[in-house]
Design a protein that fits this description.
Layout (H helix, E strand, L loop, with lengths): L1 E4 L4 E6 L4 E6 L6 E7 L9 H8 L9 E3 L5 E8 L13 H6 L10 H9 L13 E3 L2 E4 L5 E4 L7 E7 L3 E6 L14 E6 L1
Antiparallel strand pairs: 1-12, 2-11, 3-10, 3-12, 4-7, 4-11, 5-6, 6-10, 8-9
The structure holds zinc ion (ZN).
Length: 193
């Protein structure tokens, strides 16, 4: 069954070891932020630093593992039809729009959509780690300067993760203009046994 995350929203759910999670960009050029927590001890969570270190790459894709802050494997990427994901930048938050977009008004954000959906699992705002940003196209030059570019994902691109331990997962349909080429679209996901 394919579930839809409506534009600028999020979802959180449980996954069992051995299941697979497929995340789909149905229209193209839409980022989805994903965070993971050990379902039996939420102090263990996905770690950008451990993953980039152990995979020895800034670009995480098919064949790579997503590692926890306790150096355990949480997921393996089995398929990745787009192949460009980001694991450097934190989820967009209310402050992102104040600081980067000079917008003092309320703006939906991945950070809010993550913590609001994770409240039922007793996970709090300050527990949210750097997300694995599926389909996000962050580029850098030889000086190390970063830029957020339009996603390279086309309609129907997807990524499949194998679940290696029982997890609480939260996913968003990202709300940041620059990350999604200026328009907000839904994200689809499917849990496969
Ligand atoms: Zn976002």
């Amino acid at each position: 069954m394919i579930c839809e995350i409506k534009k600028q929203s999020g979802a959180a759910f449980l996954l069992k070891k051995g299941e697979k999670l497929k995340v789909i960009d149905p229209q193209g050029e839409q980022v989805s932020d994903m965070v993971l927590f050990n379902a039996h001890d939420t102090r263990e969570k996905i770690s950008s630093g451990k993953t980039l270190d152990f995979q020895e790459s800034l670009l995480i894709t098919k064949g790579d593992y997503l590692w926890s802050n306790r150096s355990n494997k949480m997921m393996k990427i089995l398929e990745d039809t787009n192949g460009r994901n980001d694991f450097l930048l934190a989820p967009c938050s209310p402050e992102t729009f104040q600081i980067m977009y000079d917008n003092p008004n309320y703006h939906p954000s991945c950070f809010e959509n993550l913590y609001v959906n994770l409240e039922e699992f007793k996970i709090e705002k300050d527990d949210i780690p750097t997300a694995f940003n599926i389909f996000m196209n962050v580029q850098w030059n030889s000086k190390g300067e970063l830029s957020v570019e339009a996603p390279l994902s086309k309609a129907g691109d997807y990524i499949v993760f194998e679940v290696l331990t029982d997890l609480i997962v939260a996913l968003t349909a990202c709300s940041a203009e620059d990350s999604n080429n200026g328009s907000f679209k839904p994200i689809h996901y499917e849990i496969l046994s």
